[in-house]
């Protein structure tokens, strides 16, 4: 009988150490500190202030303003999901069929991603201008408009999401495209020989093979949309009439405009739980299907 | 004998050690961690002026001030000269001037406070004082102020927004008054006499309608409907004889969103947009865009502050074409103007020495000598000065030479009925902005009904918790 000698994998520890320390310091410490802050009527001058227990949580759960922001956040989520999430998947599938000029198309799809997001949003904001905006001008040629894109309570959310439909898919597209390219061409060719059309090949061969990327992308997409701030702030600052105030914006306003850091932290903790819960549910569903 | 001597020696050594430690602890003049209140006994003269009789040079104190001018600041050269002057006058105070971002200043400042990096002296606006005092971000400088020989040269009203419960928390730096800024040429072209057109709400609504011409992409009144909409809207509530909140004697707050005055004011906002059709299409556009519309001749009038003339002229407007008058009187027959401005606040957690140095710095920049230097600089460079000053000993007539007399008169008239912003603004702002934006965007919105809903919500989410906290 040989006794396996226990050895410490120093090299492994050495390589992991910096990233683990950074992760603990910059991810877990702020997260735990946020939960800590949420239990106080937090004073930034004399922290932590008065212990509040769960008062901040009960306060937000009974606040109509908070639930309106939650509702706005989920409406944005649905709009982004319906209007934008599937776009790079389709683009990647179509791109994989293109042989000539493939590199050029990939380059063209990537090009908008090098533009800073805020600059892109500002250009769209000018395009939406009701007096001088290009969008109303173009729409007038087909007899539509003028629309008050960012002044109309019914269409402001749509106006915020619209730019992502046209120029928000660069990196996702590359990931999907790479996954599609990893599907062995022999299998696809064999399916073709067996009479499987493009539609059938897509549903039965390509999509199942890129499913894992779609799931990862969905988790990233979900947290990104549920915590969206910059583009909405630049476009509307949460207005008009609070119709685009999302939870992340309410968190910032509550902390920095009203100095209610404890309440703001409770909102952050709430959103953390919601996103964690949705991610777990989504992973469960995926593993059941597998 | 030997034993006793040993005990005595030990006791003496212990007492000596304790005394040494106590001396070391109490003798910390270095400037770290004493914190607390700026009202502690100053080490120099109460004014912060260097003491001539001092036999030794005062210890150097280093302070951080967020006042470094931006690269494109028109006053950059002047400011840098003034920094150098301060350093030569007070060589024992070393100032680290830090530059702040141009936007989101409040967020940047609050982040610094939360991170324990609050600057020793900070330049802040009137509306933030309420929060900063309540949160303990501004030091109580009552004793330093009262001991300063220059305190009698400040307007008593300049201290109002920086005073709470009889204690002073800010050194007044600047003041402005708001009024209606109008384009004289556009009024003349429309055959309007400003004195008649700006008389009351009705006459102004009709004039603004007349000044609106979609064919020329021109409109009568640039209304503020963005997320700061309550800033100018409150003036209309004052004109109707009310206010948005009332501070009770016990410190609690009472909402008056549903008062006749507020409902009338909101109805008037609605009328300007839907009845007179006298505003811009994009009613939620930014304040910068409102200014731009005015100086480019798109809008004939807008609410403006008395320190905006420089901006308008820099952007190409002829100063002779700018009119400035009190806002049209509302149903109460009055037209109060909002008084705003800036204070220097001091870090309450800084050491006493740093607080004194920061106070000296603030008082220096609010002194007659420095303010007059700034006014002279503006005059020499053709910049229209802010005609309001926090000081009583500055003769503004020296610095307005060559400026249109009607403009000077307009500012003076506007300042006749000064008013501070409504109580608890920082917390209530989103609750009142929503009804304002709703009436500007929805023609069918009923002011009374939406104000009622806003009041109920604000009562539950802001006022009830606030009042119960105050009453504890």
TrEMBL record, chain A:
Q: Which GO terms describe its biological process?
A: transmembrane transport
A Pfam cross-reference name: BPD_transp_1
**TM helices/strands, residue ranges:** 12-29, 74-95, 107-128, 134-151, 158-179, 210-229, 262-281
Identify the SUPFAM superfamilies for this entry: MetI-like
Query: Where is this protein found?
Result: Cell membrane
Q: Which PROSITE patterns match?
A: ABC_TM1
Domain ABC transmembrane type-1 stretches: 70-282
* Keywords on record: Cell membrane, Membrane, Sugar transport, Transmembrane, Transmembrane helix, Transport
Q: Where would you say this protein principally sits, based on its record? A: membrane
Q: Which domain of life is it from?
A: Bacteria
Topological type in the membrane: Multi-pass membrane protein
Q: List each coiled-coil range.
A: none
| Entry GO CC | plasma membrane
Which family is this protein grouped under? Belongs to the binding-protein-dependent transport system permease family.
Name listed for the protein in its UniProt record: Multiple sugar transport system permease protein
From TrEMBL, chain B:
Looking at the record's lineage, which domain of life comes first?
Bacteria
Source species of the chain: Paenibacillus endophyticus
Q: Keyword check for Secreted, yes or no.
A: no
Give the start-end ranges of region Disordered. 30-58
> Any idea which UniProt keywords this protein has?
Signal
Endpoints of the signal sequence = 1-26
The UniProt record lists the keyword Acetylation: no
Q: What protein am I looking at?
A: ABC-type glycerol-3-phosphate transport system substrate-binding protein
Q: Which InterPro entries match?
A: Bact_solute-bd_prot1, SBP
């Amino acid at each position: 009988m040989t006794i396996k000698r226990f050895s410490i994998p120093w090299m492994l520890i050495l390589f992991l150490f910096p990233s683990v320390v950074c992760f603990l310091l910059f991810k877990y410490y702020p997260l735990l500190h946020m939960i800590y802050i949420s239990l106080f009527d937090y004073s930034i001058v004399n922290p932590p202030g008065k212990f509040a227990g769960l008062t901040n949580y009960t306060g937000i759960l009974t606040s109509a303003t908070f639930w309106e922001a939650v509702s706005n956040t989920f409406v944005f989520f649905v709009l982004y999901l319906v209007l934008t999430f599937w776009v790079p998947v389709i683009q990647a599938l179509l791109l994989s069929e293109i042989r000539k000029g493939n590199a050029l198309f990939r380059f063209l799809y990537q090009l908008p991603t090098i533009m800073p997001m805020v600059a892109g949003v500002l250009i769209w904001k000018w395009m939406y201008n009701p007096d001088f905006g290009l969008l109303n001008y173009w729409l007038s040629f087909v007899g539509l408009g003028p629309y008050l894109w960012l002044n109309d309570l019914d269409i402001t959310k749509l106006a915020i999401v619209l730019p992502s439909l046209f120029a928000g898919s660069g990196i996702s597209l590359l990931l999907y495209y790479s996954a599609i390219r990893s599907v062995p061409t022999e299998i696809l060719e064999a399916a073709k020989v067996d009479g499987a059309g493009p539609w059938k090949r897509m549903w039965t061969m390509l999509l199942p093979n890129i499913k894992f990327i779609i799931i990862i992308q969905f988790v990233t997409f979900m947290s990104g949309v549920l915590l969206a701030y910059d583009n909405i702030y630049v476009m509307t600052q949460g207005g008009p009439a609070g119709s685009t105030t999302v939870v992340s914006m309410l968190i910032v306003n509550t902390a920095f405009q009203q100095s209610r850091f404890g309440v703001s932290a409770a909102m952050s903790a709430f959103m953390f739980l919601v996103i964690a819960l949705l991610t777990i549910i989504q992973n469960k569903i995926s593993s059941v299907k597998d | 004998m030997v034993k006793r001597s040993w005990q005595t020696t030990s006791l003496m050594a212990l007492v000596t050690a304790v005394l040494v430690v106590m001396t070391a602890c109490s003798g910390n003049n270095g400037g770290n961690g004493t914190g607390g209140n700026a009202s502690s006994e100053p080490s120099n003269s109460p004014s912060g002026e260097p003491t001539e009789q001092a036999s030794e040079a005062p210890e150097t104190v280093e302070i951080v001030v967020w006042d470094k001018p931006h690269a494109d600041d028109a006053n950059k050269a002047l400011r840098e000269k003034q920094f150098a002057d301060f350093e030569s006058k007070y060589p024992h105070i070393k100032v680290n001037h830090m530059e702040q971002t141009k936007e989101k200043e409040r967020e940047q400042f609050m982040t610094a406070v939360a991170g324990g990096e609050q600057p020793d002296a900070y330049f802040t606006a009137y509306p933030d004082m309420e929060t900063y005092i309540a949160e303990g971000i501004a030091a109580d400088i009552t004793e330093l102020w009262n001991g300063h020989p220059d305190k009698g040269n400040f307007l008593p009203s300049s201290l109002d927004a920086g005073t709470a419960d009889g204690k002073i928390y800010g050194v007044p730096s600047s003041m402005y008054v708001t009024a209606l800024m109008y384009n004289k040429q556009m009024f003349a072209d429309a055959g309007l006499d400003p004195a008649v057109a700006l008389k009351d709400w009705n006459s102004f609504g009709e004039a603004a309608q007349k000044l609106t011409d979609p064919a020329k992409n021109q409109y009568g009144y640039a209304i503020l409907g963005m997320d700061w909409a309550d800033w100018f809207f409150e003036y209309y509530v004052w004109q109707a004889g009310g206010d948005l909140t009332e501070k009770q004697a016990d410190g609690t707050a009472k909402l008056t969103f549903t008062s006749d005055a507020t409902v009338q004011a909101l109805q008037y906002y609605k009328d300007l947009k839907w009845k007179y059709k006298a505003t811009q299409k994009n009613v939620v556009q930014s304040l910068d865009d409102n200014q731009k519309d005015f100086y480019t001749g798109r809008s004939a009038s807008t609410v403006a502050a008395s320190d905006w003339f420089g901006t308008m002229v820099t952007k190409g407007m002829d100063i002779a074409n700018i009119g400035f008058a009190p806002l049209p009187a509302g149903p109460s027959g009055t037209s109060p103007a909002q008084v705003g401005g800036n204070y220097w606040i001091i870090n309450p957690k800084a050491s006493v020495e740093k607080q004194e140095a920061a106070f000296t710095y603030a008082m220096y920049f609010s002194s007659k000598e420095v303010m007059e230097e700034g006014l002279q600089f503006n005059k020499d460079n053709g910049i229209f000065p802010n005609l309001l000053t926090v000081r009583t000993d500055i003769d503004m007539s020296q610095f307005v030479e060559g400026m249109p007399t009607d403009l000077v008169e307009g500012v003076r008239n506007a300042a006749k009925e000064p008013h501070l912003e409504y109580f608890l603004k920082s917390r209530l702002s989103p609750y009142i902005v929503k009804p304002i934006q709703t009436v500007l965007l929805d023609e069918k919105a009923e002011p009374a009904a939406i104000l009622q809903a806003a009041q109920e919500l604000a009562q539950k989410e802001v006022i009830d918790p606030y009042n119960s906290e105050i009453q504890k």
